Amino acid sequence: MNNADSRGGRLYFAVSMLLMLLINRIIFPLGHLLSWGAPHRDLSLPIDAKIPFLPWMIAVYIGVFAWWVYVSWLIADHDRQKADRFFLAQLLIDFICLLFFVFFPTSIVRPELNGQSIWVVFLKLLYEFDTPDNLFPSIHCALGWLCWIGIRGNKEYSSAIRSVSFVMAVAVCFATIAIRQHVLADVFAGILLSEICWLLADIPALRGLYSGFIDHLMQRINKTSERNGAI
């Protein structure tokens, strides 16, 4: 795209990000509602218990959102077609996860939190805010992995950015287990889903639908701004 400094580039980025956030915030309560009363499966395995419980990894779990925004900006700044593919893959991840949340609901047994370290305090807040279901696949892992998929092998980005993106993808996958938000099955399902949705988002017809929808939203916003400016 190479026009992130232009109004059109900034608007594209803002509209796409807001759409991602809106859909992401909808699917969790909707998943809870539609799976209400259904039996929830515990997919944990003995190996999950062997992974150390590390409350400080909540910093990675939360920090991945900042990395997601940064990578989204980088991709939106380079090429509109790749940006459409990246954002469409996120939408596909969300919608497919919603189907799993409804028809294959899972749950996890969380540990009792002791101590008053800053990490334990943050983890207690997370546990209160985020119910222990809507787990399979892990959207956290899927989005973290997608941030690496979007720039891997692309020499338009520095080797440092590509390396850090891979490290972040792996770190967030580990963090979800280390703070007992997910189990290994959720993690691997999230990674696989990310790869599948990246391939699906390369289908021209699907990508065209997303691109046209975003263009329509941008046109509506521009017309509204022009109309308000003329008043």
Describe the protein.
There is one protein chain. The chain is mostly helical. It has one domain. The protein is built from 9 helices and no strands. The protein has helices spanning 7-34, 46-50, 58-78, 80-103, 118-129, 139-149, 159-178, 184-200, 204-230. Helix 4 (80-103) packs antiparallel against helix 6.
- Please state the structural category: mainly alpha
Rg (CA only): 19 Å
Largest sheet: none
> Please, how many domains?
1
Question: Mind sketching the topology for me?
Answer:
Blueprint lengths: L6 H28 L11 H5 L7 H21 L1 H24 L14 H12 L9 H11 L9 H20 L5 H17 L3 H27 L1
Helix pairs in contact: 1-3, 1-4, 1-9, 3-4, 3-6, 3-7, 4-6, 4-8, 4-9, 6-7, 6-8
Task: Briefly characterize the structure.
The protein has helices at residues 7-34, 46-50, 58-78, 80-103, 118-129, 139-149, 159-178, 184-200, 204-230. The protein is mainly α.
